[in-house]
Write a structure and sequence with these properties.
This protein starts with a helix and ends in a 16-residue tail after the last helix. The chain is rod-shaped. 0% of the residues are buried. 70% of the residues lie in helices and 0% in strands. The chain is mainly α. It contains one helix and no strands.
Length: 56
C-alpha cells in the first residue's frame, strides 16, 4: 500500500511542477511581448533624441 501512495504522491508533485513551469513560460512570453511593444513604441525625449521607455 505504501509504494502505491508514494507513486501517486510523486505523480501529483510532477504534475504540479509541470503545471507551474507551463504557467511560468506563459508569464515569460507575456513579459517579453510587453517589453517588445514598449521598445517599438517608445517616444522621443524633450531634446528630440529617442529615449528609453523604462527607467533603470
Amino acid at each position: 500500500m505504501v509504494p502505491i501512495l508514494i507513486v501517486l504522491l510523486l505523480a501529483l508533485v510532477l504534475f504540479g511542477a509541470g503545471f507551474a513551469v507551463k504557467i511560468l513560460w506563459w508569464v515569460a512570453l507575456i513579459v517579453l511581448a510587453v517589453w517588445l511593444l514598449g521598445f517599438l513604441v517608445r517616444g522621443t525625449s524633450a531634446g528630440g533624441a529617442r529615449g528609453r521607455w523604462y527607467r533603470w
